[in-house]
């Protein structure tokens, strides 16, 4: 009938912002799964990190499916989201960034299938973040969820560049068209 239930048992319309955020997060996990498969075919060692990210996105979804306005203490204990995964992403970003040449121009999503799939995942991540931020601002989701998605998009960008470099693939540079 166009309604679905949150983890707290509350019935909301399927178009509710919570379900939009859950859907975007699910799409993100799927995109990362595809990027992970391409990256695995190339023997990248970061594939285990992508799997860990997908697991964290399940926790993101649990937090989103538990609106703080209707959650009881038992719900909150099962679906809380800490800052620890955010800090881990920041460590991963630093590790890969140190190995990359500095950016001197805008790059386009490119650099081989692994890199392009990671860029696609980054774009989906940004959409998920845009869906989550209003929930955080409304007090319905943990602010660490939005922080995680924000840092995750940066991680995916750095990882896309790293994958292209490791595979010896060229990143396409943005060239401004002449008028």
UniProtKB/TrEMBL annotation:
<dbReference type="InterPro" id="IPR029499">
    <property type="entry name" value="PduO-typ"/>
</dbReference>
<comment type="function">
    <text>Converts cob(I)alamin to adenosylcobalamin (adenosylcob(III)alamin), a coenzyme for methylmalonyl-CoA mutase, therefore participates in the final step of the vitamin B12 conversion. Generates adenosylcobalamin (AdoCbl) and directly delivers the cofactor to MUT in a transfer that is stimulated by ATP-binding to MMAB and gated by MMAA.</text>
</comment>
<dbReference type="GO" id="GO:0005524">
    <property type="term" value="F:ATP binding"/>
</dbReference>
<dbReference type="GO" id="GO:0009235">
    <property type="term" value="P:cobalamin metabolic process"/>
</dbReference>
<keyword id="KW-0067">ATP-binding</keyword>
<protein>
    <recommendedName>
        <fullName>Corrinoid adenosyltransferase MMAB</fullName>
    </recommendedName>
</protein>
<feature type="domain" description="Cobalamin adenosyltransferase-like">
    <location>
        <begin position="1"/>
        <end position="163"/>
    </location>
</feature>
<keyword id="KW-0808">Transferase</keyword>
<dbReference type="InterPro" id="IPR036451">
    <property type="entry name" value="CblAdoTrfase-like_sf"/>
</dbReference>
<dbReference type="InterPro" id="IPR016030">
    <property type="entry name" value="CblAdoTrfase-like"/>
</dbReference>
<keyword id="KW-0547">Nucleotide-binding</keyword>
<dbReference type="Pfam" id="PF01923">
    <property type="entry name" value="Cob_adeno_trans"/>
</dbReference>
<comment type="similarity">
    <text>Belongs to the Cob(I)alamin adenosyltransferase family.</text>
</comment>
<comment type="subunit">
    <text>Homotrimer.</text>
</comment>
<dbReference type="GO" id="GO:0008817">
    <property type="term" value="F:corrinoid adenosyltransferase activity"/>
</dbReference>
């Amino acid at each position: 009938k166009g309604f679905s239930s949150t983890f707290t048992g509350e019935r909301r319309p399927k178009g509710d912002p919570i379900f939009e955020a859950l859907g975007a997060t699910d799409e993100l996990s799927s995109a990362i799964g595809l990027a992970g498969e391409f990256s695995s075919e190339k023997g990248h060692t970061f594939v285990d990190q992508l799997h860990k990210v997908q697991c964290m996105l399940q926790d993101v979804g649990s937090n989103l499916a538990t609106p703080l306005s209707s959650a009881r203490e038992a719900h909150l204990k099962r679906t809380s989201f800490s800052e620890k995964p955010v800090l881990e992403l920041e460590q991963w970003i630093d590790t890969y960034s140190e190995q990359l040449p500095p950016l001197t121009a805008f790059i386009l999503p490119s650099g081989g299938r692994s890199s392009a799939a990671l860029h696609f995942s980054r774009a989906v991540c940004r959409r998920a973040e845009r869906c989550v931020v209003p929930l955080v601002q409304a007090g319905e989701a943990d602010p660490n969820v939005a922080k995680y998605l924000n840092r995750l998009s940066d991680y995916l960008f750095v990882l896309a560049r790293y994958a292209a470099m490791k595979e010896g693939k060229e990143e396409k540079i943005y060239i401004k068209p002449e008028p």
